[in-house]
């Protein structure tokens, strides 16, 4: 089964994305990834490493995020709250619902990533 790699915390970033990003290449890639996820509802495999969004990010240095300790904590928190594990594969729509129900609607987003530079726009 083919699946896309997705970092768990990107489930939250996708929910709040409004066309702003680190640079043009990042924003264009993020926009097209979100379109694809919503249109095709592919299987995704949760990973705490480079994913389809990181690929075009200026913070991705030789396949490693330059904030990997911080974002790795975000990823672990999302997995725990959704009762998921790294390596799990599920439909994007199932993952989106778990993030919405267990984190966003429960008001837990800022506990996870309140120290992110985008915090003020992710409401
Ligand atoms: S604050 Fe940062 S990590 Fe949290 S959802 Fe927004 S962009 Fe993603
Ligand atoms: S490389 Fe780091 S900052 Fe860039 S999208 Fe991936 S996790 Fe986010």
- The end-to-end span amounts to 35 Å
> pLDDT under 50 segments (min length 5)?
none
**SS field, number of helical segments:** 5
What is the count of β-strands? 5
**Strand ordering within the main sheet:** 1-2-5
Strand content: 5-15%
Task: Briefly note the structural class of the backbone.
Answer: mainly alpha
Work out the helicity level.
40-55%
Radius of gyration: 13 Å
Bound molecules: iron/sulfur cluster
Biggest sheet overview: 3 strands, mixed
Order of helices and strands: EHHEEEHEHH
Describe this entry's structure for a reader.
- The chain has one domain (4-116).
- The strands form 2 sheets. It has a 3-stranded mixed beta sheet. Strands 3-4 form a two-stranded antiparallel ribbon.
- The radius of gyration is 13 Å and the shape is globular.
- The protein has 5 helices and 5 strands.
- By secondary structure, the protein is mostly helical.
- The chain has helices spanning 10-16, 24-40, 68-82, 92-104, 109-113; strands at 4-6, 43-46, 60-61, 64-65, 89-91.
- Residues 9, 12-13, 16, 74, 113, 116, 118-119, 122 line the site of one iron/sulfur cluster.
Task: Describe the structure concisely.
46% of the residues lie in helices and 11% in strands. It has helices spanning 10-16, 24-40, 68-82, 92-104, 109-113, and strands at residues 4-6, 43-46, 60-61, 64-65, 89-91.
Write the layout of secondary structure elements.
Blueprint: E1 4-6, H1 10-16, H2 24-40, E2 43-46, E3 60-61, E4 64-65, H3 68-82, E5 89-91, H4 92-104, H5 109-113
Describe this protein with a few key phrases.
single chain; about 120 residues; mainly alpha; 3-stranded mixed β-sheet; two-stranded antiparallel ribbon; 5 strands; binds iron/sulfur cluster
